[in-house]
Amino acid sequence: MADASFAHRLPKAELHLHIEGTFEPELIFEIAERNKVTVPYPSVDALRRAYEFSDLQSFLNLYYDAMAVLRTEQDFADLAHAYLARAKGQGVVHAEIFFDPQAHTARGIPYEVVSDGLWSALRESERRYGISSKLILCFLRDLTAESAMQTLETALRHHGDRIVAVGLDSAEVGHPPTKFRHVFERARAEGLLTVAHAGEEGPPEYVWEALDVLKVSRVDHGVRSLEDPKLVARLRDEKIPLTVCPFSNVKLRVVDTLRDHPLARMLELGLHATVNSDDPAYFGGYVGDNLAGVADALALDDGTLATLARNSFTASFIDAPTRDRYLSRVAEA
Ligand code: HPA
Ligand code: ZN
Fold this sequence. Notes:
eight-stranded parallel sheet; 8 strands; binds hypoxanthine
């Protein structure tokens, strides 16, 4: 069995991380106070006790409520700094970070406030935390394609070069990737890469659509792909990375326990799986904790953990020389 310190110490890239999902209860209350808004829970402990989820939607309800206290550029900067500081302690050296602009613009917060706040932290990330970073704009799939297109146009006008890719998150079932065909076509025409949450709660068909219609470079989650052997063969043959989030899958009841998690099976099947934290403030741990958790529950040895760390870099959107430097650091760990 691998020890936790190796899992934490291994240099790694985090590829599936919602910045709004890193909002810890203490910071939620601090920012709420600063903005003179109330949190619908009496205390930090009471809020944390509410983190019992029955499915994705039950989590999303709380996630959107909590982020509603974010109002100013400073709030978004503080959120990102807090994540980067924690990520550093988890061995993260590169992070590709999702953000949900529509969850903020729908509340009257201008896109620029979100983008400028996050960017003020990310542009210092390498120097302050030793973490290179990229931003991925996610569309909320339970909103309309028109709303997604408007969000994309706003993002392209306001420092479009800050974004490496677009993604798709929020309530999956009933909102197939095809709904966003034109939005993703427009994004690709502008030179953006694409990813999408698929096969978390949704069926394998959504993973096929993400590949065939949205032309994704990676599939976020993708665990339900295992139900379809032809899809597994496709993902393996085309070396499509899957950004797997073990703690999230347990907390949102995609799997019963960590011991039942299919990560080891995915690796055995030749899939390019990576380990990520999704919404670490809500799901019980950051990415090093996730890696230590699966190492323990699935009896993964250090060699397998190193494979997962290598997978995280080869699945990332960094340039080849930087990727190779990170891979040498894994070899030295
Ligand atoms: N799935 C879908 N949408 C999300 C998630 C998730 O795990 N986390 C934040 N938004
Ligand atoms: Zn996610």
